Amino acid sequence: MQRDNHYDESQIQVLEGLEAVRRRPGMYIGSTDERGLHHLVYEIVDNAIDEALAGYCDNIEVTLNLDGSVTVQDNGRGFPVGIHPKMGRPAVEVCLTVLHAGGKFGGEGYKVSGGLHGVGASVVNALSEHLLVMVYQDGKIHQQEYQRGKILYDLKVVGQTERTGTTIRFWPDVKTGEDPEPGIFETGNFDFDTLKTRFREMAFLNAGIRIQLTDDRGEAPHTEVFHYEGGIVSFVEYLNRHKTPLFAPPVYIQGVKNGSTVEVALQWNDSFNESVYSFANNIHTPEGGTHLAGFRNALTRVINDYGRRANMLKPNDANLTGDDVREGLTAIVSVKLVEPQFEGQTKTKLGNSEIRPLVDAMVSEKLSAYLEENPTAARTVLDKCLSAARAREAARKARDLTRRKTALESAALPGKLADCSERDPAKCEIFIVEGDSAGGSAKQGRDRHFQAILPLRGKILNVEKTRIDRALGNAEIKAMITAFGAGFGKEFDPSKLRYHRIVCMTDADVDGNHIRILLLTFFYRFMPKLIEDGYVYAAQPPLYKVTRGKQEQYVYSDSQLQRLLDEMGRDAKPEIQRYKGLGEMSYQQLWETTMNPETRSMYRVEMKDAIAADELFNLLMGDQVEPRREFIEQNAKLVADLDI
User: What is the model's pLDDT at position 216?
Assistant: First the structure.
């Protein structure tokens, strides 16, 4: 067999200008789905935020236009419009057409910036079908337009103005099938709530800045404004609004050293969950990093030192652990530094070694002072930490009982688990089913080769309202932990997971929805990686069976039923069977409608934003009734006739 080994300089491709971005968009914005689409807006808004950090901008307005475009307008200095000395073209054009061109590379343009790579505006231009930029500067309005990153005409003056700033309007390049160009994005639908969550976060992190988001796509414009003079203190108060704080207001710590700014706000509440979020140059760092390590180290040391001084920790008592002192803690750790070093292209972890001792020292000094000056609050916090330590010890004993045994001790699997014979977790799925009758149908109808069934009795414990030691004493929770085989909490190891599809299969009614929410709350609090890594699914059993003559159709929502009846016409008189629960179906029907991979419908549970998810689980499953009632009243219309 002959091979063509010819490989020379003619085969080396050089992608000119922004063509590299269009050819490999995922390298620059992560993906071309809904997440990547929204990233375009963030990149432009981040430029305006950089102007705010430099002290030149305090108002940003974002508008979702009816034609699918987005307009971002700020009152900063505006892109420079003079001729770039090296490129010989207007600087604004260079910023929008040349990768890694911007004021963020050690020059005097920006001391602190979130846009580390300087590719934001040019990437948005490359991935837009059309982009219009208007710069308001020195009394003039400068304008230029681009098509898929290519210049349509030279920068020109189109009017006079007294304002300063920049307006960018862009139309994302969406795949339509009508355009000869292939397009980039799978969807062009911007989600108002996704943007709202991001911009609220940005406004909290930058005290005093005003961000306005307007949706012009409906019958009437809808506008929300985010403006918080309290900054991250307001952020903590917002996150704790559905909880009961142990003291008020939150502790605020701030300091500047060697050009780096550290801001920390913290407040304990009566919940059992930790809600600590870290940011570097306004970028959320979900994997933490050196700033978070410095905060945690100082927090644990300060609480232990105070406990010893106040004689609440006796000489023979062991020190409180980090988990003990962070139970019920809500905190924001925000640092702004000149040259941030993020680990990985996704910027999820801060790596600057110098920031750890800086955060540690500031938190140590100012939190110690707060505890000394506020002894009542200090003792309340210490009492909670000591209670957490006692619960941790009880949980340790319970944990020993729930640890996954080795393969040779498979008898340790829950007795009610009907396991599958396949041993490759990637091919295995487990259905969590409520009730013996539904469990019996599922066991009969399943494919025993790759489908396992774990029936639960009634509603599981609401872990949002219980400490870990009590949760681990619950038989249903112990059964799930043991069946999954990957542990829980900080010991959770996805590589040991016995099934790569964990399917919540509950009745298609209010009780079924409640059970599913209880299950998701348990997964989110005890095994968040299950959701983050896409292992959790929700089955969709039918609501109705419609029979006309020999023809049978299964219907999954009231709206779908109405459409079907409309199609049949008034003269057709079908028999309609309403399923009150899974147990009403024969095992053949359950297999055909809900379990057969060839015919079933199920959706993967996703966690788009950890802060929003934490807030929602606390709202829905926490102790405060009034906020939950208001949420249900405001959103009931969204689920009254829900198609998923």
Answer: 96
